User: Which sequence fits this backbone?
């Protein structure tokens, strides 16, 4: 039979056929021992493995950071970032800053401009010390309610955010505020 070979232990009266391909299924995700553990609820599996606690700590910092904006307190927000914090905004209307002091200085004006600001975490994906948080930002700007989707990429070291790259929909903001 084409594509098949006799098994090496086959005898004349018995034929064992096997595929000549490797037994490894390269087109499928392969589970690795020690990388799965039952969730506390027992209803699903987590692939966090031994780094589960670190991943949960990273997720917790990201969620706490997003929630801190609702306080309206610049100090509460800045408490989540390290001294060398790098704040990047590739979006057209964003402006970057470097260092915790510079970030804190800008937060008061930002929070005043975006009154009642909240970030709703839609999804937070964690890998090691990095988190990607998809969010919906809601606030009022000059009395006009806005709702903008975006994603923050965060790098977290020793419980503090060292780098934030914030991608948000600038055009939606301009449309909602009547500027486009």
Assistant:
């Amino acid at each position: 039979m084409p594509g098949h070979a006799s098994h090496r232990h086959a005898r004349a009266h018995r034929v064992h056929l096997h595929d000549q391909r490797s037994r490894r299924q390269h087109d499928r995700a392969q589970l690795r021992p020690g990388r799965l553990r039952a969730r506390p609820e027992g209803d699903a599996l987590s692939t966090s493995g031994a780094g589960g606690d670190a991943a949960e700590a990273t997720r917790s910092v990201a969620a706490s950071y997003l929630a801190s904006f609702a306080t309206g307190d610049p100090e509460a927000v800045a408490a989540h970032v390290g001294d060398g914090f790098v704040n990047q905004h590739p979006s057209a209307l964003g402006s970057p800053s470097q260092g915790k002091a510079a970030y804190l200085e800008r937060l008061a004006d930002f929070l005043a401009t975006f009154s009642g600001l909240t970030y709703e975490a839609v999804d937070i994906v964690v890998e090691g010390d990095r988190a990607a948080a998809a969010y919906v930002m809601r606030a009022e700007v000059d009395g006009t309610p806005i709702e903008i989707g975006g994603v923050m990429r965060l790098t977290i070291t020793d419980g503090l955010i060292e780098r934030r790259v914030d991608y948000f929909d600038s055009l939606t903001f301009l449309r909602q505020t009547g500027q486009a």
Q: What stands out?
A: The chain has a mean pLDDT of 81. The longest strand covers residues 144-157. The longest helix spans residues 52-68.
